[in-house]
TrEMBL record, chains A, B:
Coiled coil: none
Superkingdom in the source lineage: Bacteria
Record protein name field: Phosphate-specific transport system accessory protein PhoU
Alphabetical list of InterPro entries matching this protein: PhoU, PhoU-like_sf, PhoU_dom
Domain PhoU: 17-103, 121-204
Length: 237, 237
């Protein structure tokens, strides 16, 4: 019984990795689509987001079924609840990649990105893809050092975002308002995508180190005492 | 025992309503702050978001403790898991209200919003606040008709968002790039805020009607059969 149970827990982990790989690929392809004004590629990214949504839906169903049937406590409960949150991060990342692709489609046959910003947007897209690849690796390896690296990568994303804004605010900006609006939204999409990748990695850190778990246990302790019932499992949650 | 349990479930519901009220107030005050260039008000909105984060943290701790101690199944399990998701929506809404306030602070003593857009932004802010007030009411009353109203309100938000874009794209736009960028981001914040309010209401609908639950049960049935174990509780999840 416990074996089937842990197999199912593992399969939830695998679904998270699948989602991370799909959205990492999506942001890379969406970036190519918007820089090259490639309508076909944009359409394929937009269509492929359904697969991410399906994976999330399936993962949630399995996580909730697991809670109902196995009623995990302590670490296992934390893993299931955290997996639900990670899947929400990844689903949202997929939406953001789709937003980039939709902007590519909206401006086709033009590119939404002026040539003097191609390098910056390319770098943001590549960094976003790398961040998600690392997040997937963190899910698999539970490597805390790698997880902490993602925060530094996110600083690099913030720097690129500021570069983008400097271009926009430069008096010599000559691409008009529509492009300024597009570039503003694009910057926001990449920044939020990166935030979600960092969030996934942070949740793994929380699972491994139980960092939040201690505070959490303090919070719930009075309620537990008030009901005169001990918490099942070793670490309270 | 069951009474204390349901009391705790109720208190989670109350915490959600508290969060919704706080973020509804926050978006209203942030809108005033940005239109009036009121630095003090902006600062108070920025500081108040901590309270929302604390409420979420506390709610999550209690929800997870409840899962561990009471191991709910069926409807009760669905309520707890859905509450976790709603709290994430509300926490994020709080962030978005804070973003509006931060933009007010950044542009002080100027207003980030040019006069000819004051009415549109005011309307977006008011609508956002109303949407969140309705979401809070839906949590309390579980009124499905009211929940469905939110989607119509969201259509009105989309319309306002398009109005904003029409202003931006108008050849007569005379407020420069910086303001165009500010207005683009503002529009996005209000739109996302509204999305989260709608999402909260939709999750209540799901709880009451169990709409997703049926699909969900179909998904997990083979796995359950494979392990030769029935799902506890009436509606499977």
């Amino acid at each position: 019984m416990r074996d089937a149970y842990h197999e199912e827990l593992d399969s939830i982990g695998e679904a998270l990795v699948d989602m991370a790989r799909l959205v990492g690929s999506a942001i890379g392809r969406a970036t190519t689509a918007i820089l090259d004004a490639d309508l076909k590629l944009a359409e394929s990214v937009i269509a492929a987001d359904q697969k991410v949504d399906d994976l999330q839906h399936d993962l949630e169903a399995r996580a909730i079924a697991l809670l109902a049937r196995q009623q995990p406590v302590a670490t296992d409960l934390r893993i299931v609840v955290t997996s639900l949150r990670m899947s929400a991060d990844l689903e949202r990342s997929g939406d953001l990649a789709q937003h980039v692709a939709k902007l590519a489609r909206l401006r086709f046959p033009d590119s939404a990105v002026p040539y003097d910003l191609h390098a910056t947007i390319l770098e943001m897209g590549q960094l976003a893809q790398r961040l998600m690849a690392k997040a997937a690796e963190v899910i698999v390896t539970k490597d805390i050092d790698l997880a902490l690296q993602l925060e530094q990568d996110d600083d690099a994303m913030d720097l690129l975002h500021r570069t983008l804004f400097q271009h926009l605010m430069d008096d010599r900006w000559k691409h008009g308002i529509e492009t300024a609006v597009d570039v503003t939204l694009l910057g926001r999409y990449y920044e939020r995508f990166a935030d979600h990748a960092v969030s996934v990695a942070k949740r793994v850190v929380y699972l491994v180190t139980g960092e939040h778990a201690d505070e959490l246990q303090q919070d719930v302790q009075p309620a537990i005492k008030g009901e005169g019932q001990a918490v099942a499992g070793g670490d309270g949650v």
